[in-house]
Known about the structure:
With about 280 residues, the protein is of the alpha/beta class. Helices cover about 35% and strands about 20% of the residues. It folds into 2 domains: about 20-65, no CATH class; about 85-280, TIM Barrel.
Amino acid sequence: MAVPKPKKYVRKRAPKKKKVPVWKWHVLAYTLLIFAFLLFHYRDGIGYFVTDLYERIFKKEDSKEVTVHDFRAMEILDKHNDHLFGFDVSHYQYDIDWKGIDSLYGKFAVDYVFLRSTMGTDGVDAKFTYNWKKAKSRLLVRGAYHYYRPDENSTQQALNFIKNTPLEPGDFFPVLDIEELPKEQSKEKMREGLKNWLIIVEKHYGVKPIIYSGANFYEHHLKEHFPEYKIWIAKYSLFNEKMNDDWHFWQFTDKGTVNGIETKVDLNIFKGDRYDLKQFVIQ
């Protein structure tokens, strides 16, 4: 009977560890750097979010939902902390608790407010009279604006604003809000109507009005034709965090949060300090 040969013992080698490709380490490093940058850049917004979350869970407070718009707004406010901040409202903000308005995001002081007064030839904002009185009681610098409808008579629109807007010393110059092109007339006729409104209103109040518009609308349809007027611009770009030199007021978001107001709110920055602001109010 044959004896089987003993099996040779073969030492098994441990499997080689796969090396992580260098490019993956680079991706990880860049990702961490970007995360750190965003964490630092939006630190105020993140802090506000954490505080809000804490109040919701532990204090059971009915706080407002924090969004990316709040993060952006707080960073812009922080970058312009040497300027003055305010907001603007209309009847779309419903019933405002004016006593509850003390700051933006619990950090930035509120110095002024703009209120919609009239629209077109015969429209009057349903909340204007109430909000106008309450804004004064809060010692805020008040401003009133007229929403211009380009296909309606400009003289009647000016008279509608004058009839319903009792501006006083200490209030902002009147504001003309123009945001849309006409459907029934040319752009030239629209600009003639705007100039007519501005002249009539200036003659009544004794001060040159402020023009409000969107950034693109102003750039393409107004800028070359109204160089002598103070400008208030709306621009909400997520990538725009600085104020343009051509603007005096910047409405940088329409989704801001203000204590005392249940809905989202337009927030504004004035390029200057309290001394500069005196150049924009009726004496």
